[in-house]
Amino acid sequence: MVFSSPTFLFLFLPVTLLVYHAIPVRSRGRNAWLLAASILFYLWGAGSAILAILFVSLSSFGGAYIAWLIVRRQRQEYRDGEPRKISIPSLVILLIILVPLVVFKYLPQASTLAIPVLSPTLTALGANTWALPLGISFFTFHALSFVIDSARAGRPLTTSFPSYLLYLFVFPHQIAGPIVRYSEIGAQITAVRRITARQMGYGITRFTWGLAKKVLIADNCGAVANAMFANATNPALMSGTGAWLGALAYTLQIYFDFSGYSDMAIGLAQMFGFRFPENFRAPYTAGNITDFWRRWHITLTTWFRDYVYIPLGGNRRGIWVEYGSLLLVFLLTSLWHGALAGFLIWGGLHSLALLFERITGLRKVRSFLVVRRALTMLFVIVAWVPFRALDVHTSVDIWQAMLGGPWDFLSPTLFVSLTPFAIAALLVGALSFFMPSGRTGFQTVFGRSEPGTLSSFRWKTALVVVPFTLVVTLAMVLHSDFSPFLYFQF
User: What is the helix (H) or strand (E) element at residue 214, kind and residue range?
Assistant: First the structure.
């Protein structure tokens, strides 16, 4: 069950909302109902894989207490009141939390490699058939942040296991983010959540906006991208025109798919009285790659910054530590998506671009904005190719076509994918390259409001736009085939 499925839109969400708002505001039954609905949501989509998130829940909740005790003892041992390095027991706790992620995400991929002893053993165990639990990277990072923040705070962030379970399980963010830290919503979980008409209107509007991005733009662009990448296995079907068109289509697909999910998650959270952090801020308007990563998947970027880059020294211990920390962060970012060659190439390209900008000082240049934005997007489009192709050979073939043509044809399958809906989606999606960089598309249409600061929300505009958009989008949902979100695989 996904946010864009008829089951969710016409059954699960209406029932969950009606029961939730029928329960008295001050009643603990609201949290209990939302937790039960979230567990059902995960069971519906993942079945027995719920054992993985339960293992992570128990190990991280208990681990937060152990980490707190360890840090308290360390602080008593040092005169300056702070431990000088992470302890072995604390590291073991974090590794235990990572066990399901390693087992289900990386061991199956290791079974396909020619690693003596390990690969045959994993194949014999059937590792290549193990299903990846939905959202495992996201809820694992939620759990890790809880343990680390508890240790840093000198106390567990909560002593209520039901509250912690709700934090991990709450269905708007459990599958594909945004990555929310307990410190950001812990007070909201325990507070009396009074939901105003403006909040509900904002939530419905934001959810509809995200649903339209997914169904009307991402899915139609995805049809074009899928046709091109399918052709990549046959050189006779590849052309420079087709390669660029397919790469552009995937660039739009992954943005509108993932940012659409984030919009829907933020909107859903508002309907239940929660405020989630923004995850995208017009990334395709970035003036350089450094700026791009301040705008793309913001919660993942800040997670690695706060828990990896800064603890390693960041930019405070000389350029070699700074550059080494940056390279490690992007290696981990690549591995977060998967231990496949395509992800590693994509991460490597971005890390090299970031290093180049730091060494040359280009990240501080403010002139020639149009040129910088064009070059940045050219790089981003090219770098998405291995992320989608996954293997080196296919990526190289597509890049060769992008550089050398031929430029005189489109393959039959690619031509057929260019339906009127797909062409319209490509044109509308391409507007994301040209919009003002200071605000998102949602803010442009509905006002510069964000969750929790809704004073500038243009509710009159929403009353006109939302009903029409929702009807068109729901019609497409009923007409089209099932299309999961791209980041469900992570």
Answer: none
For residue 382, how many C-alpha atoms fall within 13 Å in the half-sphere facing its CB? 18
The CA distances from residue 44 to 50, 77, 94, 134, 434, in Å, are 10, 49, 28, 11, 40
d(CA 272, CA 172): 10
Distance in angstroms (rounded) separating the CA atoms of residues 321 and 464:
53
Residues 158 and 214 in one domain: no
Q: Are residues 382 and 395 in the same domain?
A: yes
Residue 312 belongs to some domain of the structure: no
Residues with active-site annotation: 337
* Residue 182 belongs to domain spanning: 6-194
Write the CA distances from 312 to 68, 321, 352, 449, integer angstroms: 21, 8, 19, 35
For the stretch 162-190, what's the b/e string if a residue is b when 16 or more beta carbons lie within 10 angstroms of its beta carbon? Answer: ebbbbbbbbbbbbbbbbbbbbebbbebbe
Say how many CA atoms lie within 13 Å of 86 toward its Cβ. Answer: 17
Calculate Rg over the CA atoms of the chain. 23
Cβ count within 10 A of residue 28: 11
Q: CA–CA distance from 484 to each of 211, 258, 261, 277, 394 (Å)?
A: 12, 11, 11, 23, 24
pLDDT band at 83 (very low <50, low <70, confident <90, very high): very low
Confirm whether 339 is domain-assigned: no
How do residues 91-141 score in pLDDT, each as one tens digit?
A: 888 899 999 998 888 887 777 666 776 777 777 777 777 777 888 899 999
Nearest to 139 by CA among 161, 163, 166, 110: 166
Residues in the chain: 490
Q: Which two tokens stand for residue 94?
A: 């974090």
**440 shares its domain with 414:** yes
Residue that is last in its domain, among 176, 194, 212: 194
- The pLDDT tens digits of the residues spanning 346-383 come to 999 999 999 999 999 888 888 899 999 999 999 999 99
Which residue from 480, 490, 414, 489 is spatially nearest to 218, judged by alpha carbons?
Answer: 480
Kindly state whether residues 215 and 87 are assigned to the same domain.
no
Residues 115 and 73 in one domain: yes
* 419-432: burial string, b at 16+ Cβ within 10 Å, e else: eebbeebbebbeeb
Which of 269, 275, 219, 271 shows the shortest CA–CA distance to 249? 219
